[in-house]
Request: fold
Amino acid sequence: MQVTFLGTNGWYDSTTGNTVSALITARDYDIILDAGNGIAKADRYISQDKPVFLFISHFHLDHTEGLHTLVKFRFRKGLAICGQIGTRADLAGLVREPYTVPLDKVPFAVAVTELADGPHELPFKVTCLPLVHPVPCRGFRFEIDGKVITYCTDTGVCDNAITLARGADLLITECGLKPGQKSPDWPHLNPEDAIHIAKAAKVKRLALMHFGAEVYHTLEERRALKGQFEEICPGLIVSEDGMTVDV
Reply:
């Protein structure tokens, strides 16, 4: 199984990358995490011959603006969009004329599934729980092909993030802030917070993404985190657009 980071910026595109999206390439399914502008690059990494699942954490535009590009794809086994309760109404308001091509007019079948908090079989197992953010936001835990991958962005430190990440092979979480920075009124994580969650959950490996574009101006600023924190977090992944890691 592999994870490819399609877009690793938070808030807006910049020279460091596109807004948030990642791809889990499993044996029988392709699973896309969020639909920032990075999602437009998904067809570089998938055949489009497997069923595709898209999980939306929340509807801030840096996680959804790439929905405008869905019409370019040819998902021959269809697309299942999954998110929290209310996702269907939010999609109907966002992915519609005159702004973009509506979902019922894209060239493949689309189904929308709203997930209550807790575990589900879709047909792989996924658990969703609320995170700490100014708008309703969900984190996801995927159990597939004998592996566990957890995706938690955007959030502050919270018990649900630790619960979702418990024993995961890979925790993908945000790093919107620089070391030592705090944002109590608009919760996000700094590297120390992300490492705290990973250690509390006893995950095997931590991957940082969703780097605030207004905070991390260069890739070098991101890359410095690996040297700064890898000793206390062995195997730390500091993601960049186009990076693929084996799980």
About this structure: Residues 8 and 240 are 6 Å apart (CA to CA). The chain has a mean pLDDT of 98.
